[in-house]
Amino acid sequence: MVDRLTFTILGARGSLPIDRPDSARYGGSTICVGARLSPDHFLVLDAGTGLRRLHEQVPDQTGLTFTFLITHFHWDHVLGLPFFRPLYQPGQTFNFYATQAEGGTVAEGIAGVMEPPLFPVTLQSAPSSHNYYEVPDHPWEVGSLTIRTARLHHPQGVTSYRLEHADRSLVFATDVEAGDPDSDAALIELAQGANVLIHDGQYLPQEIETHRGWGHSTWEQAVEVAERAGVDRLVLISHDPDRTDEGVDAVLSAARNRFPRSDAAYPGLQLEL
């Protein structure tokens, strides 16, 4: 068994990718987090445009497995998949876990980003092997990880993942909107005692009133989850596309005033599990 796993933030931007000099430090790529479970097995949380950064870690060989845990099928969370080179290499295996979309299957939800006229190549025609799995309602294992989930509040729903490795745990809870009692309680339970909580922090407290129903939280609401769940470390993610580096710095400073063990996600940030 691997003593420690390292999760790397590959993309941290919410809603849509951006490219602006004043936002370069926290990056413009949408959400993606990766970890290497073994020499030939990679775990990926969401497939935003940050997925392309994983190319730097993937060896030039076949027989690789990529296991994706997808929170939901909105474009910013799957848009990197059509541009991920291993998808077009024979001998590579892709396992996709997600909760089925409204009226559709997991396979349809994943493949939707590559359907003409949106993209000229279909997922089905890619020469790698593809497997699709509905997220189970009980813990299951991927490599050395035990995975638990909760279904949270977001337009069309979103799945949060708790990854447990040996005696440590990481919770991935992006694109969750605070304020729904059942969702709030489910997240607190899922995140209880976690070593790392990656949590949506797209809005400022003063912005939330004009963004009700948009499916995101404030940094203040993320801090409240971290406090109530008793987590060791909070990492804010899903930075607003209009938020500059200085703006994210200000969000982080405010969060640290209440919860000192806070960070703001940026490409290259490594989290050990």
Outline the structure in words.
The chain is an alpha/beta fold and 273 residues long. It has one domain: Ribonuclease Z/Hydroxyacylglutathione hydrolase-like (Metallo-beta-lactamase, Chain A, 4-Layer Sandwich). Helix content is 15%, strand content 28%. It has 4 helices and 14 strands. The protein has helices at 106-111, 181-191, 219-229, 245-258; strands at residues 6-11, 32-38, 41-45, 65-69, 93-98, 129-134, 140-142, 145-152, 158-165, 168-173, 196-200, 233-237, 262-264, 270-272. The chain has a 7-stranded mixed beta sheet. Helix 2 crosses helix 3 (219-229). The longest helix is centred in the last third of the chain and has 14 residues, at 245-258. It is globular. The protein starts with 5 loop residues before the first strand and ends with a strand. The model has no long low-confidence stretch (mean pLDDT 95).
What would you say about this model in short?
The chain is 15% helix and 28% strand. The chain is α/β, with parallel strands linked by helices and 273 residues long. The protein has a 7-stranded mixed β-sheet with strand order 6-5-4-3-2-1-14.
Which characteristics define this entry?
alpha/beta, 7-stranded mixed sheet, 4 helices
Shape: globular
Strand content: 25-35%
DSSP E strands, number: 14
Taking all Cα atoms into account, the compactness measure Rg is 17 Å
Structural class: alpha/beta
CATH homologous superfamily placement: Ribonuclease Z/Hydroxyacylglutathione hydrolase-like
Just give the CATH class: Alpha Beta
The largest sheet has its strands arranged as 6-5-4-3-2-1-14
Remind me, CATH topology? Metallo-beta-lactamase, Chain A
Q: How would you state the average pLDDT, rounded?
A: 95
How many structural domains in the coordinates?
Answer: 1
Instruction: Give the number of helices.
Output: 4
